[in-house]
Amino acid sequence: MKNSVGKFAKSVLEINLDRISQNYKILKSYLRKAICGASIKTNAYGIGMMPVARKLFAEGCNDFFVANLDEALECKKVLSNNNIYSLNRSCDYSLPKVVNDSVISLNYNEQNFSASGEDGYEKLQNEQVISITEVIDSKIYSRNPNIYILHGVNCIDGAKAAAEMGLTPIISDLSQLEIWNNYGKKIGKKLAAVLHLETGMGRLALQKSDALQISTNSELISNVELTYIMSHLSCSDEINHVMNKEQLNEMQEYQKMFKNIPVSFSNSGGIFLGEEYHFDLVRPGAALFGIHSCHQKQTPFLQVVTLKAGILQKKILEKDQAIGYGATVSAKRGDKIITLECGYGDGYFRNLSNLGKGYYNNKELRQIGRVSMDMIIFNANNLTEEEFNEINYVELLGDNINVNEVANCAGTIGYEVLTSLGSRYKKVYIG
Amino acid sequence: MKNSVGKFAKSVLEINLDRISQNYKILKSYLRKAICGASIKTNAYGIGMMPVARKLFAEGCNDFFVANLDEALECKKVLSNNNIYSLNRSCDYSLPKVVNDSVISLNYNEQNFSASGEDGYEKLQNEQVISITEVIDSKIYSRNPNIYILHGVNCIDGAKAAAEMGLTPIISDLSQLEIWNNYGKKIGKKLAAVLHLETGMGRLALQKSDALQISTNSELISNVELTYIMSHLSCSDEINHVMNKEQLNEMQEYQKMFKNIPVSFSNSGGIFLGEEYHFDLVRPGAALFGIHSCHQKQTPFLQVVTLKAGILQKKILEKDQAIGYGATVSAKRGDKIITLECGYGDGYFRNLSNLGKGYYNNKELRQIGRVSMDMIIFNANNLTEEEFNEINYVELLGDNINVNEVANCAGTIGYEVLTSLGSRYKKVYIG
């Protein structure tokens, strides 16, 4: 839910957009012919739809997958020329500030982060902004991105909104197809769509009998232009899982059913299963954001998110002391204790209680006591006196402890670590 | 993080503000003399700072506890007369819509939910709005609420902002006290503050030696008016925990140290430990929102949040089928399968995979397969054909399965269930 913007927050969430670009380039380097799209659903895996979409668009990505129509409309808006220039005209944005030479502070209302074009550029230069993707190459906005809606459109109002904004629903149900096709008829246009076909995920897809109906009854798609057929791998994180090959076989069968229609099949993990899994368009998400998408220990992808939790209080205990709710742990007189501005209300999972780790000066610090809603406590005994005096943050996520390690520790996956990141941090986008 | 507003969302989060009022009344009924404040930190436990603060303010609550300065400024803003009237003048708000006789749809920009005063009332009446707390009694806004900042203020800029807005920092550190006292000196004013004293929580509080210094050196508080001393119970959820009495004893000791200064001590759980724990001001949070705050099975508090997850797809499987990522479960040909618009990206914890429950028509439905980022799957075999045809949502949170039950199932506490609620739902505030 909406929360206060971190104007006075001590905890800083750094998001390295340049590394997302690099991860995108790495992914492309694995592809021979396939187009590399990007999955930026769920607010770009919690990282921020707007800056991520713009960065990837500037990087040449033209195919964006989002979860639902609301996200698709937002994606369209942030990649749309008109919107950017209208915002420039009104100057209705909070200007980002330079934090250091290469960092732009984004204590801004995200909806208004739209500086671009000539006016915006000058305005921003006056405010000493060093680099903004949109400024570097505002011409990119003349391209028209493909925005795919994974949940499709499910009502006439939705179809209208999607059609007007040139969005592409992914159809996983005959009723969705009917809505979309009828809307195309109504406005006398062929509307782009993707068919999502069941190959083994069992989640949201057309079953084979539906697919057969569509492939044999052209009336069902009289006003639809099928730009892709697609499916989704359920076990691509396990390279040798039997499901991968089974799903591939199914997809190849569907390819025969829908001749000459391009195919989108692979998520991040699928890209590493070999070229036969690539088909025409891949749609990685996890790898872009530094999440492990397969069980290989080593992946070439860079960490994107750094969380530096600010310190609310440092103290040396003057007596033995129970720590936190439930008094689950006791600290000793003389222990160095640090209370951080971060809790499960900020997405630092409560089940990291007494398990979490943090870093300062390459030294590991251990979290103690239960995670509270707005605070966590660390023992800092292994810092020197000098370090204890100077320390002003603990790295909870970053190059020393990456999103996958935090996930392991919390018994989940990196995806959930990112999508759970709270909204009270001061956010800093790099690049 | 910020996310798309659920304009086209099928999943609806209903928040019953009337029940929050009732819970507040129930809490007050346990108090003989103590004032009943409210903890509305972390965006009112994820429920929405603005509507909750206003509802409680209208109910007579005048003491609001928030985590940090950003939240305090937001709280001040939403409870401030000036803000409301200036918004009325510009009519800069999205008008809420009536969904049915007693429900106001809040597909609005939360920041703009500020209709009130005479103008606003008429405007809203024209739009057929049935009830809005602020409209019912706009006079409440002549009161001046006390807003307490649990993390205190930690820099001069922060002190300036807090002082200008009449906020009350809770001091847990001598350096915070110095900043606040110095700022008072600078502007020639005595500034209200609360001292947070260590009694056994070990988290964020002044240790005894600090308290002693303050109590004996009036220079440290020359420009501070101590409105309360406070501490925080660590084990109030366990009525017989030895810590409760120990902390109470400590608090009583501090009372002697700071004679004639009122005391705030109890959270929700503390209120049920007996009147000696109440002192002058209590600050419940959990109980207001229907969260169990003690180990008693029966609590009198009403559920506040209902999550009705919308259905993206219903299908009867045409063959045996693996379900979800990792193919952790197999469903049978003929099984009734429902895919819901809700996932861990919406705060439905991934560790509810193959454990979650939902309700429709008082029938329990079981979640199957791993929770995905944007979707979950339920088996609906125990619905009749008629029910399966008509079902359009599954209750994931509400009167049939409350926040504490979901928490138990996920291995956490109700607090984290609420603070994790995502931002993609269509939100409906009742009352």
TrEMBL record, chains A, B:
Q: Which InterPro entries match?
A: Ala_racemase, Ala_racemase/Decarboxylase_C, Ala_racemase_C, Ala_racemase_N, PLP-binding_barrel
Which Gene Ontology cellular-component terms appear in the entry? cytosol
Q: Give the reaction(s) catalysed.
A: L-alanine = D-alanine
What's the superkingdom here?
Bacteria
Q: Which positions are annotated as binding substrate?
A: R203, M373
Record key words, sorted: Isomerase, Pyridoxal phosphate
Q: Name one GO biological process term.
A: D-alanine biosynthetic process
Required cofactor names: pyridoxal 5'-phosphate
Q: What class of enzyme is it?
A: isomerase
According to the UniProt entry, what is the EC number of this protein?
A: 5.1.1.1
Q: Which SUPFAM superfamilies does this entry report, sorted A to Z?
A: Alanine racemase C-terminal domain-like, PLP-binding barrel
Q: Which NCBIfam families match?
A: alr (TIGR00492)
In Swiss-Prot or TrEMBL terms, this protein is called: alanine racemase
